[in-house]
């Protein structure tokens, strides 16, 4: 049993949303260790020549009343309440989101194929066994046409693997399953409401980085920066970070689960083998500063067609005018290719942005900044559930709670990170005896 009290604090690794939420809800003494020089993790905003860039789109969809009240209380009138304007660009036209309930506007042969395929699938959707993988899920619930024209190509670009390699563990929340009436209305343009989990969102006027900064400012004890984790010694119950040994009685980690396991000292061999099975796709994206406003007013657009080099484009400046200098614009472009972005890759991106109507040509572009997220989307392959559960249970036995989007090794939203941090604090308080 680990020793308690004395010089051993609760130690939190990472000052992103989950780590900050854990610190906020802990009554016990804690130390909050952050490798970078500021809080926020992936929820930071960077100022670059008058343009404010998040790390791609980070929009707040808050369903929990206490979390919503907490965030609104912190940010007040700095929060914008925005009704989603998302689109899908395919076959040279824009349609509304979600694709499966908005085929109106597509070329008639494509719309017919999607609608007839959906109706055929609807008639048999509950007759067979449950789908074994995501590709079967797509065909069972949406039919062959929607699979061919959107679901399979888009998700292949997003995840970087074929849908048949993915499980269905993540779909209930993130893949809208419209009913027959919604699909029929969407085929003739009769929708009067937005579908999906994110029809409305909140967003800070000067970028998502305002949220972690406000969370941090409200803490009773601030983060310690430059504390990159080198090792976690299970026997000695010590974190080696920033060149120093930090003893702990509970450890709340928001590091990517695979990375935390790689840093464990004294763990059995199966832990490393299991952690090696965890898969995650990186993301290369572009921050694009524009000389003028974007040519469309949508917040983001999904781009399924393989011929275009990106799978999603968002317009920061359509979230908030305060992110850019007056009269300017800013985009984020999420690329399907996972390798480094080279100068010779830009012309294809530029042509795509012209085709989407976002820019008129090279003269509209002020500058481009390639960025890389080493961890972007946890891959829900068929080994995901078992591997994740075994590792989290092992860590819990050692009073280590691995939480957050990457600590919990899941596909989740910012609200989920705040909830996970709060839940971790409660576990510590209830079991710290």
Which features characterize this protein?
433 residues, alpha/beta, FAD/NAD(P)-binding domain, protoporphyrinogen ix oxidase, domain 3, Polyamine Oxidase, Chain A, domain 2, 7-stranded mixed beta sheet, 14 helices, globular, disordered N terminus
Explain this structure.
With 433 residues, the protein is of the alpha/beta class. It folds into three domains: 9-39 and 223-279 and 380-431, FAD/NAD(P)-binding domain (3-Layer(bba) Sandwich); 93-195, Orthogonal Bundle (protoporphyrinogen ix oxidase, domain 3); 281-378, Polyamine Oxidase, Chain A, domain 2. Helix content is 34%, strand content 23%. The chain has 14 helices and 18 strands. The protein has helices at residues 17-25, 65-75, 108-124, 134-159, 171-174, 180-187, 210-217, 257-262, 269-275, 316-319, 346-355, 384-397, 404-407, 414-431, and strands at 9-13, 30-33, 46-48, 51-53, 79-83, 86-90, 93-96, 200-204, 229-233, 238-241, 244-253, 264-265, 280-290, 300-302, 310-315, 329-335, 365-378, 400-402. Strands 1, 2, 9, 10, 11, 12 and 18 form a seven-stranded mixed sheet that branches. A hairpin with a 4-residue loop joins strand 9 and strand 10 (238-241). Helix 3 packs across helix 4 (134-159). The longest helix is centred in the middle third of the chain and has 26 residues, at 134-159. The protein starts with 8 loop residues before the first strand and ends with a helix.
